[in-house]
Design brief:
Elements lengths: L17 H13 L3 H10 L5 H15 L17 H14 L1 H7 L11
Helix pairs in contact: 2-3
Length: 113
């Protein structure tokens, strides 16, 4: 069987290739990562403010990831009269204090057809 996606084929998701692992090992053996270097500059009170700000700007994406926008979709399901009255009664029962504060209890008449 050729072509297409095969179960178990290829590199597992999230696995690093040999070059990435070698580079990460070299950075770790050097004693300081680029991120640590930027943070050290940012915290150095003897450095000028512009240099510290540039270091902070460079390190920020690795420390504070950008917030992503998410889309919320609500599917409205059509409700017949009986279901709507039942839902309203449940809501009113669960919010009895609020209904009492309003000073009246709306009358819900059920229709018989």
């Amino acid at each position: 069987m050729r072509g297409g996606k095969r179960v178990g084929a290829g590199r597992p998701a999230g696995a690093r290739n040999r070059r990435t692992v070698e580079m990460q090992t070299a950075v770790e053996q050097s004693g300081i990562t680029p991120l640590e270097f930027l943070i050290n500059i940012m915290r150095d009170e003897t450095a000028d403010m512009r240099t510290r700000l540039e270091a902070a700007r460079g390190a920020a994406p690795f420390v504070h990831p950008k917030l992503a926008t998410t889309e919320l979709s609500v599917k409205k399901q059509p409700m017949d009269r009986e279901a709507m009255i039942a839902r309203l009664k449940v809501l009113m029962a669960n919010n009895a204090e609020l209904v009492a504060e309003m000073g009246y209890l709306p009358k819900v008449e059920e229709q018989t057809s």
